[in-house]
Amino acid sequence: MDWQEIVSRALSREVRAVSRLISIVEDRRAGFEDVYAAIYPRTGRAHVIGITGPPGSGKSTLVDKIAAEYRSRGKTVGIVAVDPTSPFTGGALLGDRLRMQRHSLDNGVFIRSMGTRGHLGGLSRATSGVVDVLDAAGYDYVVIETVGVGQSEVEIASLADTVALVQVPGLGDDIQVIKAGVMEIGDVFVVNKKDRPGVERVVAEIRMSLDLAGKYSGHHGPATAMAAATATATATAAIAANAWHPPILQTMAESGEGVAEVCEACDAHMRCLVTDNALVERRFRRARSETMKIASDLIWRGLADDARTLGAAEGLAWKVARREIDPYAAGRDLRELVVS
Ligand SMILES: Nc1nc2c(ncn2[C@@H]2O[C@H](COP(=O)(O)OP(=O)(O)O)[C@@H](O)[C@H]2O)c(=O)[nH]1
Ligand SMILES: [Mg+2]
């Protein structure tokens, strides 16, 4: 099969072709840029949902049940599991696969586990590519499961239209959610393992930090800023801009209790984004950051691959080493050479 055929089969959601297309994009195999150009006009239709939270909080269990719930509503679901804490062949991913086996005979659900090593351009870009393929292939929802361990989850969550933060009782005294930059990304809060003691406390803590965040960010949230900046914003849109208050939902992922409400909250959030014009803004921000990163990669590659610039870089480096110029001046000189 040539790549055109893979693309056309993947666009009609043929599972093996989708899988091959993902590998081409994920590994950036030769010709992947042509593939991207072919699929990109077909993207932008899926509702991308990011599910993040600490290891063991029940994200995979929840994602599995969310997929089943959407399937029961006749929707298709692509799942991308990103777990930087386990090696590709490790237990967690294997567990994910086994747990999700019941979906394996259903071509309305597609599951992909992401390896975390060897991604040229980084994990979040590779994930972004996989999301785009699933989106182009026509899955109604693309759900990204990512472990809440730091900056990477914030980056990966920025690919999503809706971010659900999963918390659980009994993970210690610290409020898990008030890590810098993490609280703000939550559109929906899920307190899982409601069968365990301490659920009310977690809910109260989230509510408290949401109140605080509300006080500090006030009505300067992105949705409002966008609505205000849009000349055509109607009074309705302006009201809707303030309408989204992240709900705090309690679930028992294992039994499926509360999962339908999580799906409804995600759908409601999407409707709110659309009414607010905030979806455009979110997607613009994702596009801007990706474009900048790709451009900077290309510039870097131009710098590293081109004999002329490499020669110039060495010449400048000698001057820096001899203390004739400082490294910033050398960097500026080199940039002139590359971007002009
Ligand atoms: N008690 C209880 N256990 C749960 C619940 N949801 C998931 N688990 C269990 O928590 C463990 C971790 O779940 P998993 O989905 O792998 O968590 P992940 O690491 O966040 O993806 C598994 O043993 C699940 O069976 C729940 O609602 N209650
Ligand atoms: Mg998991």
Provide structural commentary.
There is one protein chain. The protein has about 350 residues and is an alpha/beta fold. It folds into 2 domains: about 240 residues, 3-Layer(aba) Sandwich (Rossmann fold), CATH 3.40.50.300; about 35 residues, no CATH class. The protein contains 14 helices and 7 strands. Strands 3-2-4-1-5-6-7 form a 7-stranded parallel sheet, sandwiched between helices. The protein binds guanosine-5'-diphosphate and magnesium ion. Magnesium ion binds next to helix 4 and helix 5.
Question: What oligomeric state do these chains adopt?
Answer: single chain
Structural class: alpha/beta
Quick one: CATH superfamily of the largest domain? P-loop containing nucleotide triphosphate hydrolases
Total count of domains: 2
Terminal CA distance: 41 Å
CATH uppermost class of the largest domain? Alpha Beta
Q: Residue ranges: pLDDT <50 for 5 or more in a row? A: 87-92, 215-240
Q: Kindly report the average pLDDT value.
A: 83
Overall shape: globular
> What's the order of the H and E elements?
HHHEHEHEHEHEEHHHEHHHH
CATH architecture assignment of the largest domain: 3-Layer(aba) Sandwich
Secondary-structure blueprint:
Layout: H1 3-11, H2 15-26, H3 32-39, E1 47-53, H4 59-72, E2 77-82, H5 91-99, E3 109-114, H6 123-136, E4 141-147, H7 151-157, E5 162-167, E6 188-191, H8 199-217, H9 222-229, H10 235-241, E7 248-250, H11 259-276, H12 278-305, H13 307-321, H14 327-339
Parallel strand pairs: 1-4, 1-5, 2-3, 2-4, 5-6, 6-7
Helix pairs in contact: 1-2, 2-6, 4-11, 10-11, 12-13, 13-14
The structure holds guanosine-5'-diphosphate and magnesium ion.
Guanosine-5'-diphosphate binds at residues 55-61, 192-193, 195-196, 252-254.
